[in-house]
């Protein structure tokens, strides 16, 4: 497998959908012995310098090299490293697909998940 720079995924582990999804990725990383992939639950964990918790909770983020990416770009960065998701990442990374999936995730899915998380947090 190609050597990649370190990648840290920042995710909302308190989200009832996001947490289990990332747990699948974590198991895949462990099963395949992938290194340089780290996961940080930002619902309770330490935040990267210069970022507010609310900003990171609203969408998945990934820190790769010197760059922080979010949304579909973060999924692509992770999926390119996971054997079972690599081809999906290549497909979504085509410019037209990245635009379409980015629009869907950033405008519909991420806001819905964040509002759902906030409602759940208020019920606790």
Task: Give the class from helix and strand content and strand pairing.
Answer: alpha+beta
Instruction: Encode the helix/strand succession as letters.
Output: EHEHEEHHH
The radius of gyration computed from the alpha-carbon positions, rounded to a whole number of angstroms, is 14 Å
Overall shape:
globular
Strand sequence of the main sheet, in spatial order? 2-1-3-4
Percent helix among the residues? 40-55%
Count the helices. How many? 5
Q: How many distinct domains? A: 1
Mean pLDDT: 92
| Sheet with most strands | 4 strands, mixed
Q: What's the total number of strands?
A: 4
Beta-strand content? 5-15%
Distance linking N and C termini: 43 Å
- What low-confidence regions span 5 or more consecutive residues with pLDDT below 50? none
Question: What would your notes on this structure say?
Answer:
The chain has one domain. The chain is 51% helix and 15% strand. It has a four-stranded mixed sheet with strand order 2-1-3-4, covered by helices on one side. Helix 1 links the parallel strand 1 and strand 2. The longest helix is centred in the C-terminal third of the chain and has 29 residues.
